[in-house]
């Protein structure tokens, strides 16, 4: 019989897995000011491969020539959503598919009802949008894609699939082409994934309890990779842009690894929107540069401080 602490951890794990936005409720439009706006890197874009800074117009021009562009955000950062909107406005046309982590497969039929001239309120109603992902953050991105004539694709798996994976029913992953890459990380990759999840979830949940989360996260990444490559369809779009959390866009553990499995010749560009940190004043001070887990880092002010671990720690 499980102890009360074990039951609480299991319950908290399911909250993380089923919540579309696990990062909290702070979102664009909240009054708290951004932090570290005067950081020396804030607003600058660093090209990891060339070890040099680039300006925004140059970055946009480079991204225009890439078939698969992955944009990694911190979900509750106002600045990240503003940057994403600018990028989508400049990169999207009628040959562009935009995949959103924030929408799951159950919403795809609703997406198909959207029209280019739909107002924000109409789009929200048609999508039956919930507050799991704050509409002020993502509504403008969706509308921008529509206005530019792009194709919108839901990248995430639905709650029913999450529930089956959490309960240990994983056999169907091998039977669905959409999840052909679900095991791409192998044992070493899963262990690296486990450690990062352990740290990012406040070092409260026992490492061995994270297996369902690893399986679910890799299934999500497999789904987003498959969507970026067209879901097996031979449709008009020739380019794809992914909007997702930064962890999903990591070259070693996220969607890029799945893309590489599905299409080894696919050309990708990974842009990570990275909050600047006090005491880290050079690009090389950041892990994403030393590990080359992204191609570009766009440094931004940090979102208002919030203790996401408080509820977990209080339950210990």
A few lines on this structure:
The protein has 316 residues and is an alpha/beta fold. 38% of the residues lie in helices and 15% in strands.
Element layout with pairings:
Elements: H1 4-18, E1 45-47, E2 52-54, H2 56-64, E3 68-73, H3 78-91, E4 96-104, H4 108-111, H5 120-126, H6 135-147, E5 151-156, H7 159-166, H8 186-200, H9 211-228, E6 239-245, H10 255-262, E7 268-275, H11 287-290, E8 296-300, H12 310-314
Parallel strand pairs: 3-6, 3-7, 4-5, 4-6, 7-8
Antiparallel strand pairs: 1-2, 1-8
Give the strand content.
5-15%
- Spatial strand order of the main sheet: 2-1-8-7-3-6-4-5
Annotation field: number of helices:
12
The termini sit apart by 19 Å
What low-confidence regions span 5 or more consecutive residues with pLDDT below 50?
A: 1-9, 19-29
What general outline do the C-alpha atoms trace? globular
Strands, count: 8
- Could you tell me the CATH topology label: Rossmann fold
- The number of distinct structural domains comes to 1
Percent of residues in helices comes to 25-40%
CATH architectural arrangement = 3-Layer(aba) Sandwich
Order of helices and strands: HEEHEHEHHHEHHHEHEHEH
Radius of gyration using CA atoms only: 19 Å
Q: What structural class is derived from the secondary structure elements?
A: alpha/beta
CATH class: Alpha Beta
Q: In this structure, how is the largest beta sheet organized? A: 8 strands, mixed
> Average pLDDT, to the nearest integer?
89
């Amino acid at each position: 019989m499980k102890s009360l602490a074990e039951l609480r951890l299991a319950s908290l794990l399911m909250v993380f897995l089923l919540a579309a936005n696990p990062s909290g409720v702070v979102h664009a439009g909240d009054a708290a000011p951004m932090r570290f706006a005067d950081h020396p890197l804030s607003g600058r874009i660093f090209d990891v491969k060339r070890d040099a800074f680039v300006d925004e117009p140059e970055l946009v021009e480079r991204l225009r020539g890439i078939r698969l562009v992955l944009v990694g955000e911190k979900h509750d950062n106002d600045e990240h959503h503003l940057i994403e909107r600018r990028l989508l406005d400049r990169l999207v046309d009628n040959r562009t598919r935009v995949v959103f982590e924030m929408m799951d497969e159950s919403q795809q039929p609703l997406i198909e009802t959207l029209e280019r001239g739909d107002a924000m309120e109409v789009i929200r109603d048609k999508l039956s949008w919930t507050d799991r992902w704050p509409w002020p953050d993502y509504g403008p991105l969706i509308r921008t894609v529509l206005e530019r004539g792009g194709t919108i694709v839901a990248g995430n798996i639905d709650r029913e699939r999450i529930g089956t994976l959490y309960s240990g029913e994983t056999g169907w992953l091998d039977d669905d082409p959409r999840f052909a890459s679900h095991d791409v990380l192998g044992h070493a990759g899963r262990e690296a994934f486990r450690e990062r999840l352990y740290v990012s979830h406040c070092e409260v949940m026992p490492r061995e309890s994270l297996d369902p989360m690893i399986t679910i996260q890799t299934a999500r990444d497999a789904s987003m990779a498959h969507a970026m490559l067209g879901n097996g369809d031979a449709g008009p779009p020739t380019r794809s842009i992914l909007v997702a959390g930064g962890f999903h866009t990591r070259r070693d553990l996220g969607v890029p690894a799945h893309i590489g499995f599905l299409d080894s010749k696919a050309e990708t560009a990974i842009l990570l929107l990275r909050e600047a940190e006090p005491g880290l004043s050079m690009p090389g001070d950041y892990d994403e540069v030393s590990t080359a887990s992204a191609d570009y880092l766009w440094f931004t002010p940090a979102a208002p401080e919030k203790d996401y671990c408080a509820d977990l720690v209080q339950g210990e």
